[in-house]
Amino acid sequence: GPEAPAKVHRTERARVLIADGNATSRAVLGEMVQQWTLKPEEAGSWADVLAELTRPDATPYRALVLDALLCGTRGPADLAMLRARPGPPAPAVVLLIHPGQEGLHRWRGQVAATVTKPVRQSDLLEALEVALGAGPALDPHRSHEAQQFPRGRKKRILLAEDNPINQRVAARLLEKLGHAVHVVDDGHAAL
Description:
By secondary structure, the chain is of the alpha/beta class. It has helices at 6-9, 23-35, 46-53, 75-84, 121-131, 144-148, 164-176, 187-190, and strands spanning 15-19, 39-43, 63-67, 92-97, 113-116, 156-160, 180-184.
């Protein structure tokens, strides 16, 4: 996997809470984080996350890597209450989002960085650098969607799909990314 740049080592042994309902996903994310000399701990439910973040005797977490589906609609409000309480600062949030996920506007202003699942190690490293203050901050004037769907070089894409609904969904996603899409019904028509 990607080597952690020297700037991450300034945050060595920082506690990071990995919150995901899937045990395998938590384990994989934890292994990634541990490689960068950070100290991961896991939570499998939103109740566990809140219990961990409010334990009075614990060393504070510096970052929370949170699957957006784990907390339902309560997450942003609960995190805002944690930030408002006296005591140690609430952790910076790296939000793991799913393609096509709805309701992300509720997280505006609460998140240091977003990473789309499935998580690539390099994307998680970059997000944690931002969250821990070791990397470049995201431009606050960019829209959430622009951060969720980074725009690269525009491509002309030939999409071969026989299902009309899948054609519309895939074409719309690709067009949102700025690509020109030509749709055909099957592989023979593509040739």
